[in-house]
Amino acid sequence: MVVEMEVNNGENTTNNWVPIMKKLHMNVIGEKMKKFPKLTCRTIWRVGKEDPRRVIHSLKVGISLTLVSLLYLMDPLFKGFGSNAIWAVMTVVVVLEFTAGATLCKGLNRGLGTLLAGSLAFLIEYVATKTGHVFRAIFIGAALFFIGATATYMRFIPYIKKNYDYGVVIFLLTFNLITVSSYRVDNVLKIAHERFYTIAIGCGICLLMSLLIFPNWSGEDLHNFTAAKFGGLAKSIEACVNEYFSDEEQQKTKENSSDLEDPIYNGYKTVLDSKSFDETLALYASWEPRHSRHCYRFPWQQYVKLGNVLRHFGYTIVALHGCLQTEIQTPRSVRAMFKDPCIRLSGEVAKALKELGDSIRYRRHCSPEILSDHLHEALHDLNKAIKSQPKLFIGSKNNTNKLTLATVISKGQSGALNSRRVSLSSVKTDTSALLDWKSKLRGGSSTTHENLKLRPTLSKIAITSLEFSEALPFAAFASLLVEIVARLDLVIEEVEELGRIAHFKEYNDDDEHHVVVEIDKKNSKPLPNQLPTQDSGD
C-alpha cells in the first residue's frame, strides 16, 4: 500500500507539472512573437543604414519589373509578343545586379549567348530541312551531342570560366530549346524571334537602370574597399600592442568578450576574407566603361595583387595576436622594460598604413617620408633595450626563475588553475621530480581514469621542465613586430606600383593639409564612404 501511494503521488506530481510547463512554453512563444515585429523593423533599418544604396537598388529593381510587365499588361504590346513576354521579366530578375559591372557582365553574356545559339540553331534547322524525316532526327541528335559536349568542355577553360561561363550556359539552354522544338513545331522561327526581342528589351532596361540611374560602380567599391583595409590593419596592430602591455584587470575584461567584439580580430578579419570578394569586384570592374577623363584600361587586377600582399601582411598580425593567447606568458614586469619602444614602433607602423590608405583613397602617390625617422628610432631603441637585458633572453645559470614541478602538479590535481597562462618567471627545471611522479604512476597507486586525467598535467610538466628564458615569449612577440616592419616595405612597393600603373597624381603637401582640415571640420574619422569620389584617372 505504501508503494502504491508513493507511485500515485509521483504520478500526481508529474501531472501537475505538465500544464505548468505548457503554460511556460506558451509564454515564451508569446514573448518571441511580441518581439518579432520590433526585431524585424530594427534589422531592416540597420541593413539600409549600413549602405543606403541597397534601398535605391531595391527601388530600381521594382521599377524595372513594372516596366517589363507592361508587355503583358498592355494589349497592343501583348499582341505583338504574346506569351514570350515572360522572358523579359525573367531577364530582369536574373540580369539586374547591384553594380553596373555585374549587370553588364550578365546582360552581355545573356545577349551574346542567345544570339549565337539562335544563329547556330537556324543554320542547323536549314540544313536538316533539306534531308528526309528520319535523317533529320539523326542530324539534330548528332548536332545536340556535338554542340553540347563542345560547349561544356569549353567551360573548363580558365579564361572562359572566369568571363563567359554564364553566356555559355545561356547558349546551351537556348540552342537546345530552339533545336529540339523545331522538330515538332513549325513556327519555331517566329517564336525564337519574339523570344530574342523580349530578352533584348529586358537587357536594355537593366542596362539603362544600372548605367544611367544612380549607378553603383564595381571599380569604385573595389577602390574604397582596398583603401579601408589599411585602416583596419593599423587599428589591429595598435590594439594588439596596447593590449599586450595593458594591465591585468583590463586583460581579463577583454578575455571575457567574444571574438566578434574584439577590435584586433575585426581589423584583420576583413583583409583575410577578401580574396574572392576582390577577384569578383575586379572582374566586374573590367566590364565597366571608362568613366574617367583618360580612356585607358584601369589596372583593376593590380588591386587584387595588392590584396594578396595585404593578406600576407595580415598573417603576421594574426601571429602577433596569437602571442596574447599563448599558454606561457612573459611576466608583466619584464614586458614593462620594452613597453615604450614597442608602442612607439606600432604607432609608426599604423601611421604608415594610414598614409598608404589615404594615398589610394585620394588617388595620389604616398608621401616620400612615409618611413619616418621615428620608425627607425623606435626600432633602434627596441634593439638597444633587448641588448641591455641579455640575461633575460639567455637565461640564468641557477634555476631560481623557474616553476617548481610540484607546484604545477598540485595545481593540476586540485583544479586551482585560475588562469590558462603560466608565467615563465616561475618555471623550475626539476627533472628528478618528474621522474618521481612517473615512478609513482607506474606503481599502480592511481586508477586508469586518474592516469588519463593526469596526462595533460604531465604534458605541461614536460614543456615547463625545459630551461626556457623568462623573456622567450616576448622575444617571439618582438620578432613578429619587427617582421611587420619588414613586410611593410613590400606593401609600400605594391602601393607605389599601383600608383604608377594607375597614373595617380603626385604627392602635394597642400593637398594633405587640405584633407586634414576637412577631417577636423567634420570632427570624425575619414571613412571611405565619407570621402569625395574622384575619377579613376586622377
TrEMBL record:
For membrane topology, the record states: Multi-pass membrane protein
Entry-linked Pfam families? ALMT (PF11744)
Can the keyword Transport be found in this entry's annotation?
A: yes
Any one GO CC term of the record: membrane
Q: Where in the cell is it found?
A: Membrane
UniProt KW keywords: Ion channel, Ion transport, Membrane, Transmembrane, Transmembrane helix, Transport
Its domain of life? Eukaryota
Q: Does the keyword Disulfide bond apply?
A: no
Q: Please list the GO biological process terms of this entry.
A: malate transport; monoatomic ion transmembrane transport
Q: What is its main location?
A: membrane
Please give the name of this protein.
Aluminum-activated malate transporter 12
Q: What is the originating organism of this protein? A: Solanum verrucosum
